[in-house]
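Hello Y.,

Per our agreement to keep a running log of every chain we model this quarter, I'm adding this entry. I've kept the format consistent with earlier entries: sequence first, then predicted structure.
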Amino acid sequence: MNKAVAFLAKLGFWPFVILFTILTLIISELLVLLHSYWLTGEFFDKNLLIAGFFIPMIDGLIGFGLVAFLIRYLRELEEEKNTTITLQKESEEELKLMKHALDNVREAVYLTNPEGGFVYVNDGATRQLGYTKEEIKKMGVYDIDPNFPKEKIAPCWEEVKQKSLLAVVTIHKNKAGLLFPVEVNANYIAYRGDEYILSFVKDITEHKTSQEKLLLSASVFTHTHEGIVITDANNKIIDVNEAFTRITGYSRADVLGENPRILKSGRNTREFYTQLWASLHTDGVWNGELWNRKKNKDEYVENTTISVVYDANHEVQNYISIFTDITLQKRQHDELEHNAHYDLLTNLPNRMLFADRMKQAIVYALRNKQLVAIVYIDIDGFKAVNDSYGHDVGDKLLVLLAEKMTNILRKSDTISRVGGDEFIALLVDIQNKESVSPYLKRLIEAIAEPINIDDFPIRVSASIGVTFYPQKETLENEHIIRQADTAMYNAKTSGKNRYVIFDPQN
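Predicted structure for the entry above:
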């Protein structure tokens, strides 16, 4: 049958019918001639030929119709069969493709019945849970989801059926007993009188972890005590936190789109900022102290770390500045530093700072073949002032004397308070010993001038000892100071209110 139909399809429908009808008429006419010869002994009997002509014609037409009908029926039957086979093959391919697609998606796919049992699962379900497909098909939703025990299956089923689609976030338990968060999209399906729920289940562990990190970062950004400024690649501010507003006085709206230089105080030099940007371009980070100005124009110092954020192509995406207002700490540190090197009463350098400067001055003098003079000053009559007028007046006297002596000496010189009423002066850049005499005389005269403190007339004088260095022998600082101290003692025992130069020979 298939070969006949194939032949007909190859020949063509109408040519075959016409050919078949002609062959039928020819055969019919031959039979008529044979029949005429059989009855009359002649092939062309007139009466028989007339009857034999019309009858085959009628038979041919009838046969024509029957054959045409039969052939078309066979042809349609074959086309229907071929269509059915084609559709079956397409359906099989679609099913294979669908199964392949479902097995290769990252999400787990479950088809469950009204009792919550698994009817179908994809490969993603086995990857998520660690069970084989055969093991899962013997289980139900209640075996992998602690939030949906058997008694909750029916209400949940009705909710999905009513809404057709339901999305929930829950937790699943894998074969190892570990719980992990999932997002479930459940779809109601009716097929040939049966009901199912088709669920797509996504493991959201990474998403939830990322979300928690983002929430933590946002919380840190908002609540940290450090000010945070985020700028784009063009150094335009795109966000600041609450600590920034609290420290600077600028609101978020004040600074969005602005350059951070609006905080610039002017204390940091151009070279400072050049080095800052060079560090950012080279190392991607800079840390240091910045002097900035608040909205109310008050200056403050901040400890700042600026970091560069790069994109996937290592192009600058953002700059992030995290800073702490250290103005108070800086002030306290400076005060401690100052107190460690300066006398609390007179604000003159103390013995420690004096020794450091003396050491540097001697090195410089030796290198440049110059002299330094060490001048030891003791205030004559100071004890009597304390005893007569009290320590407050005595302290005020020391402060005034310190100011006088500072004003007499040069800025390059140093004068230090080393005891109750004792001072040491360091005179540098001295070419010869005689050049020191004018300063010594002015010190003697200034200290001896009458001073009125709290309506008390005060008169004191000074005994001054002087020594010079370098000398023939190399000496330690303390030895040089003792020389000046010895000379001062000689001045005091010689009648006070004078200076004596130390003589190494004596």
